[in-house]
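Recall that a protein's primary structure is simply its ordered list of amino acids. Everything else, from secondary elements to tertiary packing, is in principle encoded there. The following example makes that idea concrete.
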Amino acid sequence: MIEIGRLGRPHGLKGEQALVPCALTALELHAVRTFTWQGPDGATRPLTLATARPANDRMLVRFADVRDREGASALTNGRVMVEPERLPDPGPGLAYTFRLIGLEVVTEEGRAVGTVAEIWPTPANAVLVVRGEGGEVLVPSVPEFVKAIDLGARRITVRLLPGMEETGQGP
């Protein structure tokens, strides 16, 4: 199971609440429709999506059996989970970030850099945090630096500028 997002505090009186961060659109959430909620104590329960809508920097959701603020409060701080195979196809040339964690990173010349340990979202673009024997390298996830992603081979090919590895910083 992978985490789609965490449920925030209730929004309004009719059971809506924020789902953050949420990489899926409202239409994609509706396509998945059923989720597993996992509470901070590890308890789980099934959830069926009733509504989802974007609201500024977050997604507001309401589940079928949640009709008021109190019902939404009971879900606050819980994780919304789904089986990876139930996610919609992200499209050609795209991949969900959770699929990139752990992939080997090599340069265009074939030299190993490390593995993707984290992905930092930034306003401009995501940044791959690559950790290896040489330390940590930050690689902007843009075509200039990420040259190929092969999920089957579990490998990402990158182009690094001189100095990126020595300083542990991106450009």
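The chain has three helices and twelve strands. Residues 26-32 form the longest helix (7 residues).
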